[in-house]
Write a structure and sequence with these properties.
The structure is a homotetramer.
Chain A (H helix, E strand, L loop, with lengths): L4 E6 L14 H17 L4 H6 L2 E2 L2 E8 L8 E11 L3 E10 L5 E10 L1 E2 L8 H4 L1 H8 L8
Antiparallel strand pairs in A: 1-4, 2-7, 3-6, 4-5, 5-6
């Protein structure tokens, strides 16, 4: 398992705004795309989590913009799990132009797990122990 | 009951693209906003339809663009029910700048009704006769 | 050159709505993604057209929905140029689940070319003859 | 002039996702809507800023989600300018259901000003002194 997922993505025309650059809200969406790809690549299929009646809503998100992406660019979103305790999960992101070291943006998201029907928080360790163990194995054993 | 609903809506910055005008896909979304407002104003609450376990998906949509809207504009979307037989519904739309006769766009959408759980078509006349009658009363008695 | 471009695309979570399926407006966006990929694969780089001060706005779009895509699906959007005369272009689309013959949707879009500054129609044959010839070569010589 | 703008907004159907609630990325868009309404209500017309060749991109954004909005809700987004020095501006937001004290979310955004053509930072105090003074007057004289 590899915690750092590098997700490549062409910029879509409709993601730009009249400034001629990608609208900032789309970076939040790209982070979601990269996070779900990160889960998939590590055997943590989010569709499977939802089929088990569990949702993983976003409790916080944050993005710092350093430069801008435009139509024609391919962006590279790196997603990394930074915390998980069964009840909460945290991810970090960095966004670059493909093949370019310079950062476009960095970001963060926080998540919890809730029961789809009751809409109350739950502990993934109890509800899906195997899935939970798979997620835990992604965490660095030493502080990053 | 008034079949023609005039729905006013400011253009949002994030709806523009790098052409400096509203991206064409957003007109499809404005039509949905106007259609739901049309339903609400006529006592046909779509949230209530969904609470009854019924979905009303779009089976077709179409838009002709004659001019463009930009940030700072307020658009006026007129929605009108043109057909309804319990199984299918059709709406027509015209979009103008507020207070301006000239058309920005015209559009059309088609809809059916399905059971949320079974995902099979249903007849609203049988499942929600009062709602169905309220919708039917909106139709012109003579062909438009 | 190959007129039929098959464009593969994972469904993003944020493209779904509370019906649990992809919101219909996103099919219009997928058609744009496929059209731009079609242009790119045929040496017609849309970013290059815009750099020449030419925009290619959508004058009409249309979609017929036969079935629905959901999160976890990969869709296959086929784009084909069906008409081009220097002043107007038309494309047709079909959308399927990847590896599945059954149609999710079919669509159509119409386009013109305008001068970015003057915002008036132009003839691509005069302004970009090589680009125009490249587009023309994509058209079937016999009626499809 | 009133620094706190309360912006009312119905939730659109297409803003929900398959969790049945509004997708988190849309809160970032609502903040933009409220910020532009805040500017407009205080005589700071953003369209006018852009007509002067000045863009005001987002340099950071952040949102904490405490509860969720769903289709049928009307949300109330309060926007407040918290910092402005000609070069940078900062806004804070709180989001509630209309007529309900309980918070759905709180947020923050940071902005700079750039020259549309050169794409380099600029000082609004020098380029648009009246506009800059109007913005400055919105700030609390005592630290909030």
């Amino acid at each position: 398992m590899i915690n750092d997922t590098v997700y490549l993505r062409k910029v879509f025309y409709y993601e730009t705004d009249r400034m001629g650059i990608v609208h900032h809200s789309n970076y939040i969406r790209w982070m979601e795309e990269a996070r779900l790809e990160h889960m998939r690549q590590n055997g943590v299929d989010y569709a499977e989590i939802e089929e088990a009646g569990i949702l993983m809503p976003v409790t916080s998100c944050e993005c710092e913009y350093k430069s801008s992406a435009k139509f024609g660019d391919t962006v590279e979103v790196t997603a990394r799990l930074t915390a998980f305790n069964g009840v909460r999960a945290e991810y970090e992101y960095s966004i670059r132009l493909s093949g370019n070291e310079r950062l476009l943006a960095t970001g963060h998201s926080g998540h919890c797990f809730i029961d789809e029907v009751k809409r109350t928080p739950l502990n993934l360790k109890r509800r899906m122990p195997d899935m939970s163990a798979a997620i835990t194995r992604l965490l660095p054993t030493e502080p990053a």
